[in-house]
What does this fold into?
Amino acid sequence: MTRPILIAECCQNHNGSYETLARMLDAAADAGADYVKIQSIRSSQLTHRPRFDTGETAPDGTVRVIKRPFEAERERLGKLDLTLEQEAKFVEACRRAGVKSMTTPFARATIPGIAQMGFDAIKVASYDCGSLPFIRDLVRRWDTIVVSTGASTDEEIAAASALLRESGKTAYLLHCVTIYPTPAHEMHLSRMNFLRLQLDRVGLSCHPRTSDLGIDPDKVALALGADCLERHYTVLPPGDTRDGPVSITPEHLRELRKFADLPVEERRERVRREVPGWPAYLGSASRTLSATELLNRDYYRGRFASPVAGGFVYNWEEAPVA
It folds into this structure.
C-alpha cells in the first residue's frame, strides 16, 4: 500500500489575510502535509437566488429552504477573497516550502486563470461531483484530481468516476458527509467500500467538531485503508473563523502524519486500543442522503456560477464559458 496523502485545507481560515495564509502554509509543511490547499472562491461569482433571501420554514419548525440573504453573503465573502496575485504567490511559496499546492475552483470561469498559476493538483468540492462539464474542464488541465462526494447521489458518483477512469489521470474519491459539524454516528466511513468499486484510490474529507472528536475519524479511515485524507486546518483559535470549530491544528496534522506512516495493520491495532467506540464511525456503505444534507445540497449546489452575457452558466450546464 502506498503512503496516504494528507491535504491541509486552509479554506477561508486565513480570513482574507495572506500573512495568515503564509503562516498556515509553513506550519503545514513542517507538520508533514503532502498538499496545502486553498479555495479559489470569487465573491463576484455568487449567484442571487431569491428564495434563499427569506428561506422557508414549515409550521412545525422544519426548515425547508436555508435562509442565506444574498447581499450579506456577498459582503462576507468579499472580505475573504484572495487576489490572483496572492494565489499565484501561494503556489510559489508551496514550492519553496517543499509541499504541493492544490485549490478548489467553484465556477468554470475560474479554471483558465488558476491553471496558469501552476497548482500541482485540483480539488472538486462535493456539490460539483455531479457537474460533468466542470470536471471535464479540469481533467484537460491537471493530472491529479481529488473529488469529494458529499451530498451526491450514487448515480452522480458513478458518472464522475467513469469520466475520471477514462481520463487516465491520477484521481481520488473522498467520502464526505455534508453536515457541519458531523457527529460520530453520521460519519459512515464504510462508504469508502462503495467508492472503491468506482476508483482504486479513495479517502475521507470530514468535518467533525474537533473539540469533540479530534482526529479519531481520520484515524479510523486510515485503519480502513484510506489513501487520502483532507481536513480543514487552522493556526488561529477555533472561534476566530467560520470553519475554526471543525478545523485541526498543526499539532493534529503532525500526529496524523505519524499515524498515516504506520503499516495499516498497526493502524488497525492502534484504533482498536486507542479510539473508544470506533465502530460507531463505520455506519453503512449504502445510504440515502439525510434531510440536513439535502438542505445543504439545495443551497450550495449552484451557489456560484460563471457570468456570461445575459446571465450565468452553472457548472453542470454544457453551455460554453469564456
Remarks:
- The first helix runs from residue 18 to 31.
- The mean pLDDT is 97.
- The chain is about 35% helix and 15% strand.
- Residues 39 and 320 are 23 Å apart (CA to CA).
